[in-house]
Amino acid sequence: MTRGQRRKLRLSKLYSFSCIRLHGEERHAQIGQRGYSRIVYCNDPDNPAAARLNYKGNHVSTTKYTVANFVPKSLFEQFRRVANIYFLIVACVSFSPLAPFTALSFVVPLVLVIGVTIAKEAVEDCQRREQDIEANNRKVEVYSGNGTFHRTRWKNLRVGNVVKVYKDEYFPADLLLLSSSYEDGICYVDTMNLDGETNLKLRQSLDVTSSLRNERCLQVFTAVIKCEDPNDNLYSFVGNLHYNGKEYPLSPQQILLRDSKLKNTDYIYGVVIFTGHDAKVMQNATHPRSKRSKIEKRMDKIIYILFSSLIFISFVGSFFFGIETRRDLVDKKYRRWYLRLDDTTVFYDPTRASLSAFFHFLTALMLYGYLIPISLYVSIEIVKVLQSVFINQDRHMYYEATDKTARARTSNLNEELGQVHMILSDKTGTLTCNSMEFVKCSIAGIAYGQGETEVERALARKDWSSEANEISIERIDSHGNAVHSGKPIGHSVKGFNFRDERIMNGTWVNESYPDLIRKFFEVLAICHTVIPDVIRETGDIYYEAESQDEAAFVIAARELGFEFFKRVQTSISLRELDYERGEKIERNYELLHVLEFSSSRKRMSVIVRSKADLLLLCKGADSAMFERLSKDGRLFEHATRDHITKYSQAGLRIMVIAYRKIEEEEYELWEDEFLKAKASLSADRDALLDTAADKIERELILLGATAVEDKLQEGVPKCIEKLAQAQIRLWVLTGDKLETAVNIGYACRLLRQGMREIVITLDSPDIEVLEKQGDKEALAKASLESISKQIRRGKSQLTSAKENAMEFGLIIDGKSLNFALTKNLEDMFLDLAINCASVICCRSSPKQKALVTRLVKLKLGKTTLSVGDGANDVSMLQEADIGVGISGVEGMQAVMASDFAIAQFRFLERLLLVHGHWCYRRIAMMICYFFYKNIAFGLTLFWFEAYASFSGQPAYNDWDMSFYNVFFTSLPVIALGVFDQDVSACLCLEYPLLYQEGKQNILFSWSRILGWMANGVGSSIIIFFCTTNVMVEQAFRRDGRVADFQVLGVTMYTCVVWAVNCQMALSINYFTWIQHFFIWSSVAFWYIFLLIYGYISPTISTTAYMVFLEATSPSLLYWLSTLLVVVSTLLPYFSYRAFQTRLQPMPHDLIQRKQRECAETKTSGESSIGTKDKLKHLKEDTEHSES
């Protein structure tokens, strides 16, 4: 269709347009009151009255910070953490005499750590700012008032401007539609960015403005809009247009929302109503609830434990300090006279020992503060960001067809990917492609279509031999010979996957009912709202449809010889085969009325005139169509119903096709009634239109049914099978009907051979009788009782089948789910569901999806992951612990609300089993190691203080202590968190059992955490006591002098640095040059720092002055004691791991051992039998623990 042809269409004369009905007359009376006070001066933004209103501009900002509030707000964000508040208090107190170190040595690392985190926030906010700049600087044509349009940036738009938007452009603000390239002001809008729906929406201007279609008309156009104030309701609008002295009510159908796109329309004119943050889409731009991983929550508890330990050992130290201080003065005699007790301060005063002990307690809180890792939070954030980069760049999760990669939209939940117990998934567009293909049909009681669907192949695997044979419907050619199933031969056509020699290539004329076949495909080619678009370069026709199903029907009709090629104001044109003459002809059908599809009507009809005949062509759901058939029109009903049942079992989407002839008198009477209903402005206009449509859509003649396949995405069955091997449960929550959902379950191997089904439904005769009676109270009571009985029956089946180890699948429909989720039944329902291997909830609403997700999350306390692709999945994604959005064909709404985005469901396997496992392991090991190294370091200060009579004297130099977490031990732990791998990605996928480490939280259990803490305590004891026993009483220098305080501190610190870095080397499974570099360079940097720092003036370096160059490095005892102490420190952990890998191996230990054995033997010989047996026993144990 050319632009000129499209411009002349006046579709509003044909459509009943339930989508363009006015609602809420009572709300229009509120105009001018509170909440309805906005006034827009159309085409006159410079009006003085408009200037006084001072509406917001069209500039938008989604940044978290501004230049003015960045510093205070970012600091507030950092000091919301308890640990950072503690460090801030210590930094402030460090300027007092209480501090055991210089203030600068503590403040500098704190500023560095906080500064890095703030810099990260700034970078992320700058990225958001760049997106805002891109949006604000898009161009749009604005009417200048002198009869011309000029292009300007979006951010310069003002309320009242008239803009011109072209096809495939986004609307820059919320607009009132004035007119379009269609004469009646119709336009098509893609709202994918708003609600995720891909079907196009129809909008229509008021008749009074539809003639404003050029610059000359706009030059004299002025009007005033009085409407509602800015709000977040996308689906309502209340306002009036005051134009030419008259008042016209406005509805949502005249409103074009910002960020939606103009489609199938050359251009529109519109008036800006809401700009910038007043636009409805921006009013909806709220931040989703903050999600935190379970590891992060447990880490907070560990911090509290360390704080408690810090307070405890500070109290112990101050207690003994008070006792020692009091004992220094006995009978006015000083026990330790060399301390000059006659010349002391309040910090050490034997006469006021309790006060001195209190001040010592404050000093100890600062001194032992190294138990709390100052760089923990910033290191974890850096690691998670880098992990997200690796997820984003994983080429194995790149989908070439859409040029989409996996994307971690938040880095907070990386490790949570390795702990998922339950996946709750949508079906359409998530497990399936949401790309409809015409595959089968039933015409005049004969089934056509010889291809096998994926569900049919699954049913064959299920070994339903009899049914599988039935589903392979009548595979015979026109000569009665058997035909092999397979894919259609010839060129591939999107939306068409049909093969049957009996009706293809015009051979349908030889069938028993050629007239009915022709009518069947004429209905498909005519009964729709599709617009044909001719590609000028090639001459090919492209169909722009409101839904994928409609496009598939029109394409199928074209491929079978009924090509829809032209649509004008009052007619539709087809190129079709005239079977009587045996040649192709062009046939025009006068289009009189379109009765469009709605969820309540479940059908669509068109009324056309073909030659002298008046025809009503209708298509709809089987539940709505069969009851409308005439007595004479039911000739093929029985056969068609059988075919529909088989198509449903094959997982296909069904549409029944029918028609009727209308007499002229009947049509004229009906049209009068229909036009009156259409023109009505009363509140019951919808009911009047539905009643009128219902009268004409009766006495239909059945032609047949279509079967459209929404194919499974590639790799879905294999992915689900792997997830099941990893003991991850998958529940499917879908809006499809029960039969379709169940058979898709078999296709994707969610339901498996030998699995018994527990079906909970309210489709029973008793319930149907109560529904017809209309007694809601009795119906609710009976339904609740029925569901309760079915759940109890299901639980008894599970109990009786436990000995047989039989698997069960639970299927429940939406009506039943409403009652199962009530407080009385939810616990019983959940108990039944979690004991079933698979769960399918069909006919589920978006709210029910979210409620089921919440129930599982709260009641089980396990990590839940939801995955979906449409706007109807958003609430489910936000409710789950982890939301994964599929960037499919249903828009980006789900992706925008998700934590992770992938292009295909099969990538979930790699996201969880590889990246999830790695991230969980890395973060868990990293945090445990952080606490280990800080306890090992911090407690050496405590042991030394006890050795020095709890004097508050630190064992190390101030800057040595400050740089411990920042320079000498931080980089190796970051490398661990980013690069470590216990096994390769291939082995993670080959052995899904490995995922149990995260599911059971083996690596971050309390026993594991306390074990690492105990290792830190043990390391501190070994380092301190071995060092003091080796160094203190031995001659250290050549002249026979023993090691002094400075030498002891440097030696002990050297042992700590070596021990914790070598401990890191022992813990790493997968070495890269980066890890080697970070570990050994951290050790080397300690020596370099000690050398350079020792050269600085003693007023700055204090105890470190020349200590390495002159005292420790020339001493053999220093090097030998370092070696002895480090080996002694590492020996307990090394021994523990050696015994564990042999006697109680973890899953990754077994797989590593098997990998080594296979590499050594290069065969599956006897040497690996023991490992295989252990893996088998481990699988049995995990399955037993799951049950």
3D architecture notes:
The chain is an alpha+beta fold and 1187 residues long. It is 46% helix and 17% strand. It contains 42 helices and 35 strands. Strands 16-35-34-33-17-29-32-31-30 form a nine-stranded mixed sheet, sandwiched between helices. Strands 19-18-28-27-26-25-24-23-22 form a nine-stranded antiparallel sheet, with helices on both faces. Strands 3-2-4-13-5-11 form a six-stranded antiparallel sheet, with no helix packed on it. It is elongated. Residues 1-7, 17-26, 463-490 and 1163-1168 have low confidence and may be disordered.
- Given the helix and strand composition, which structural class is it? alpha+beta
Numbering strands along the chain, what is their spatial order in the largest sheet?
16-35-34-33-17-29-32-31-30
Low-confidence stretches: 1-7, 17-26, 463-490, 1163-1168
Largest sheet: 9 strands, mixed
Could you say which overall geometry the principal axes of the C-alpha atoms support?
elongated
Q: Distance between termini? A: 62 Å
Global Rg: 38 Å
DSSP helix count?
Answer: 42
Q: Tell me the fraction of residues in β-strands, as a range.
A: 15-25%
Overall average residue pLDDT: 82
- Total number of beta strands: 35
Name the helicity range: 40-55%
